[in-house]
């Protein structure tokens, strides 16, 4: 058996069922660790597994509990209220995704989850700084546009509180990852000022264990640089390890799951690995989760870093504008090719 992800990579699949992870198969890393040790642990996790838990991350439990509560109240509304912010009303695929409208794995049925997506806007960023006038010509990307917000009282405030805290954590991870890649810690600071960072609220129904062709979310690799995932109480996330076995990544109180996405794999010339994962919720109960997908400012040109190309090696990927890459990948599992092609802003000149 084989699985081909959107990035074109093929991965071997040994079987279709998941087993419990062996101790240390998905490492847990404390962010309070001493810097040198922390970098060594992150290097190991990012280059060998692509998935790990972080603890002592600094995001308050009260904020996490509040966003899960906000999420539940959003999904509890009737379909008409949720469809007011349907993602097809947004030019950049933000808003509400009803169940079975997104097909992440083309070999399976559409995903069972319902979702709500929103992206960066300055009032969600507690660390925002006035930007200095840039001298370079602006690069347009296909992700130009804004969020859509439901009318639900307290929704935006609840999202903003969580988004701001998790964004600060993401910027901290960016500096640690820069160090892991042999760069100065502040190397990426200038390209994460208004980052392509998408927060996604997810609700998975309890699925029929006898219908394995429909998944909560089909097997995939994430699009952006890395994901910080808050899991609710139900274990359902599975990751495909290097031997081709599905292993469970259950929720662990006090932790987030962090995984590397395809954009950072490209940027690091595959030094960091983007690991296939899926959600199969056969717990008999509804499941909620909240991933935060972090990437650079959408106008950033991402091409393999010199420090990641060893002597005698070549860059494995062509340059991409971050926003174009994200739009193209989101569109692939959401809208028809014709709809995507008719989008005027997609005619972006890639100036390198
Ligand atoms: O819900 C989860 O645990 C994971 C969700 C996920 O993989 C995604 O939205 O990309
Ligand atoms: Fe994912």
TrEMBL record:
Keywords: Iron, Metal-binding, Oxidoreductase. Residues 194-296 form the Fe2OG dioxygenase domain. It holds the Pfam family 2OG-FeII_Oxy. GO terms for molecular function: metal ion binding; oxidoreductase activity. The keyword Oxidoreductase applies. GO terms for biological process: small molecule biosynthetic process. InterPro entries: DIOX_N, IPNS-like_FE2OG_OXY, IPNS-like_sf, Iron_ascorbate_oxido_reductase, Oxoglu/Fe-dep_dioxygenase_dom. Signal peptide: none annotated. PANTHER family: 2-OXOGLUTARATE (2OG) AND FE(II)-DEPENDENT OXYGENASE SUPERFAMILY PROTEIN-RELATED (PTHR47990). Belongs to the iron/ascorbate-dependent oxidoreductase family. This is Fe2OG dioxygenase domain-containing protein.
């Amino acid at each position: 058996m084989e699985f081909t992800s959107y990035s074109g990579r093929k991965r071997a699949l040994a079987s279709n069922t998941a087993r419990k992870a062996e101790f240390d198969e998905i490492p847990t890393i404390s962010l309070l660790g001493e810097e040198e040790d922390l970098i060594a642990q992150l290097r190991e996790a990012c280059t060998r597994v692509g998935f790990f838990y972080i603890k002592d991350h600094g995001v308050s439990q009260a904020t996490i509990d509040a966003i899960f509560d906000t999420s539940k109240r959003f999904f509890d509304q009737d379909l008409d209220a949720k469809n007011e912010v349907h993602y097809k009303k947004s030019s950049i695929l933000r808003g509400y995704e009803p169940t079975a409208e997104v097909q992440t794995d083309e070999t399976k049925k559409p995903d069972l989850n319902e979702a709500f997506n929103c992206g960066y806007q300055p009032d969600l960023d507690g660390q925002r700084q006035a930007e200095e006038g840039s001298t370079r010509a602006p690069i347009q990307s296909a992700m130009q546009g804004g969020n859509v917000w439901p009318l639900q009282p307290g929704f935006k405030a609840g999202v903003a509180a969580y988004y701001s805290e998790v964004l600060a954590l993401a910027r901290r991870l960016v500096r640690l990852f820069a160090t892991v890649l042999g760069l100065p810690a502040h190397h990426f600071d200038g390209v994460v000022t208004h980052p392509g960072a998408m927060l996604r609220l997810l609700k998975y129904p309890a699925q029929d264990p006898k219908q394995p062709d429909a998944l909560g979310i089909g097997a995939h690799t994430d699009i952006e640089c890395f994901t910080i995932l808050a899991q609710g109480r139900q274990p359902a996330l599975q990751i495909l390890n290097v031997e081709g076995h599905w292993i469970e990544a259950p929720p662990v109180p006090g932790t987030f799951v962090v995984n590397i996405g395809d954009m950072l794999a490209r940027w690091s010339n595959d030094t960091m690995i983007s690991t296939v994962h899926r959600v199969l919720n056969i717990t008999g109960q509804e499941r909620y989760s909240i991933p935060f997908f972090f990437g650079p400012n959408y106008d950033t040109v991402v091409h393999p870093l010199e420090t990641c190309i060893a002597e005698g090696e070549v860059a494995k990927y062509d340059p991409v504008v971050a926003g174009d890459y994200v739009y193209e990948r989101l569109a692939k599992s959401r809208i028809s090719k014709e709809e995507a092609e008719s989008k005027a802003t997609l005619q972006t000149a890639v100036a390198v």
